[in-house]
């Protein structure tokens, strides 16, 4: 069963055709094969296959601009340990946007928005915020948590 029905897929394709202007690199880190098995911590990934399907649907919505690399952490060494993890970046740059877990439900809209922002190079921040960020002298990590509650 698909997470996105045909109507939503069509809406995403139409939105991307209007709003994407530059390339976007998606990377999906997963551990395939465990399905919904309940395994000891660090061994299973109950939503990895759904995350793969969602990432593929996003890539297929604009294949000329969105590339997808699926990284199996059991084969390729990675610093990513929370699975599944989806990262976004302009090709050739280090990803600065990361979703841990399945970015479905409320989180899906933020993924679509982030893809559009990476593609256009527009961050959407006010000049005041950009000015304050320019004053930072140490690296800063910002974490945003999304929950339906």
- The order of strands across the largest sheet is 2-1-3-4
Q: Write out the CATH superfamily name.
A: Glutaredoxin
Q: Tell me the Rg in angstroms.
A: 16 Å
Query: How many DSSP E strands?
Result: 4
CATH class: Alpha Beta
* Low-pLDDT regions: none
Please indicate the percent range of residues in DSSP E strands (runs of 2 or more).
15-25%
Sheet having the most strands? 4 strands, mixed
Number of contiguous helices: 4
Mean pLDDT: 89
Find the CATH topology: Glutaredoxin
| Approximate shape | globular
CATH architecture: 3-Layer(aba) Sandwich
Helix content: 25-40%
How many separate domains? 1
Task: Name the structural class.
Answer: alpha+beta
> How far do the termini sit from each other?
25 Å
Give helix and strand order, one letter per element, not per position: HEHEEEHH
Give the topology, please:
Blueprint: H1 6-19, E1 24-30, H2 48-61, E2 66-72, E3 85-89, E4 97-100, H3 106-120, H4 127-134
Parallel strand pairs: 1-2
Antiparallel strand pairs: 1-3, 3-4
Helix pairs in contact: 1-2
Could you characterize what this model shows?
The structure is a single chain. By secondary structure, the protein is an alpha+beta fold. The chain has a single domain (6-134), classed as Glutaredoxin (3-Layer(aba) Sandwich), CATH 3.40.30.10. 34% of the residues lie in helices and 15% in strands. It has 4 helices and 4 strands, in the order αβαβββαα. It has a 4-stranded mixed β-sheet with strand order 2-1-3-4, covered by helices on one side. Helix 1 packs across helix 2. It is globular, with a radius of gyration of 16 Å. The mean pLDDT is 89.
């Amino acid at each position: 069963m698909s997470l996105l029905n045909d109507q939503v897929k069509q809406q995403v394709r139409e939105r991307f055709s209007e709003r994407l202007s530059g390339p976007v690199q998606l990377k999906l880190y997963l551990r395939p094969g465990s399905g919904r098995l309940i395994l000891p911590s660090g061994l299973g990934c109950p939503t990895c296959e759904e995350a793969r399907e969602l990432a593929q649907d996003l890539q297929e919505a604009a294949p000329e601009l969105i590339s997808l690399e699926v990284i199996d952490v059991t084969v390729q060494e990675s610093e990513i340990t929370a699975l599944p993890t989806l990262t976004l970046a302009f090709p050739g740059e280090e990803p600065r946007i990361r979703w841990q877990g399945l970015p479905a439900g409320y989180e899906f809209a933020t993924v679509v928005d982030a893809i559009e922002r990476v593609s256009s190079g527009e961050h959407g921040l006010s000049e005041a915020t950009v000015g304050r960020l320019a004053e930072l002298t140490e690296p800063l990590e910002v974490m945003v948590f999304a929950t339906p509650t």
